[in-house]
Every structure is written in C-alpha cells, then in structure tokens.
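During the no-cost extension, the postdoctoral fellow (Dr. R.K.) reprocessed legacy sequence entries with the updated structure-token encoder. One reprocessed record is reproduced below for audit purposes.
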Amino acid sequence: MSNWRKNLYDIIETDSPAVNSKLYDWLMLIFIVISLIPLAFREQTPMFIWFDRVSVCVFIIDYIFRWMTADYKLSNRPKWKAFLLYPFTPLAIVDLLSIIPSFTFFSRAFKLFRITRLFKILRVLRFMRYSKNIRILFRVLRKERRILFTVFLIAVGYIITTALIMFNLEDSEMFGSFFDALYWATTTLTTVGYGDIYPETDIGRVISMFSAVFGIAVIALPSGVITASYLDELREEKKNPK
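Re-encoded structure tokens follow.
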C-alpha cells in the first residue's frame, strides 16, 4: 500500500540516479528560475503575477510530496515522529519560507507590505538542495561547526574589545557613538576598511593596524579549515559514490 509513496520518494529524492528523478529536479530548477524573474523588476506585471502563482503552486506540491515521504527521509526515526519533525528540518524550513512570501495576507496582517518582496529572495536558497557541491559544503560546515563557532566568538570578542578601546580613546566626531566604533571595528577586522570612519590619533592608528592584521588571521583560519574538510569530503564522495 505504501509502494506509491516509496516510488514518489525515489523520484523527489535528489540523490537518486533515476531518469524521472533527474527530470523532477530539472523541472523544479526551471520553476525556481521562473519564480526569481519578477524579483529583477520593480513593476509587477500580470505575467509576473502568474509566474509567481504558478511557481508557488509547484513549490506547495513539492513541499507536500516531501512531507508525505518524510518517514523515508528520516528513516532513523519512528514513522509518526518523522512526519512530526520533518517541518522543522532545515531544508523543509527553506521550502516553507520560499512559499510564505507569496501569500500577501501575512504582510497585510502586520502592515508590512514591502517586506514581502524582501522575503521572496529566500527562494534563492531552494537552489541549495539541488546542488551536490552545496550539500557537501553543508556537511563540511556541520562537521567543523565547533571550530568555526570558536573563531566566530573570537572575532566578536575582538570587535567588541577594540570598539570599546577606540570609543574611549578617540575623542572626535568620527566615533560619536559606540555603534560607530563597532562599525569601524567590524570593517577593520574584515579588512574592508571603507574609510568613512577612521582614527585620528597615533595610538588609534596603531590599534587599526593590529586589527587589520588580526583580521587576516581570523579570515584565513576558517578558510583553511573549510578547504581541508571540503577536500576530505570530495575524496570520500569518490570512494563511496551514492
């Protein structure tokens, strides 16, 4: 009785090499592109409205299909738990966020009409599930999450510390508020340095130099970790192709 659900799962599961599964993937990609076309124009023509309606209908059907086969996707869970937990999985949340912005009554309820268009950009995230390399990258980020989180905490701590030092050290309009100092510390640490806010004292400039050098190290560390782990995942994929 559940064979049809298993067949459906084999079709919508992107790792399946079957022709109908690949066809389904390409069809979804086409509708994703169609749904993004209206976002490149300010005006909403009737054609764009229909683009949105058709694509969101396809996304809803896709979401329902994946929910119906959640017990196969989450096979390590009891069946009832799989159906219950599926809407809270990362990719299911991405799918739902790609659907919700098309229903204007959400923006009408909160009187935030213009925010709806901004939320539509979340549909770009739907491309992630159809890219093998992106899925590998997600596995890398999950695998190295502890060291990446540690680097993030170090960066945040350094930004706050240097911002406090600069805010109390520089007595000028450049650092009129602590937020200005945070903005300067962030752009300096990331080696962006827009130049709109800069220290005027010698001590402040020395701190800026240290911050820029430290920023290079902070950026280089996670980049090296991700690159090494990504290469390991690629080698693992070649050894054990799915």
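The chain has twelve helices and no strands. Confidence is low (pLDDT under 50) at residues 107-117. The remaining legacy entries will be reprocessed before the final report is submitted.
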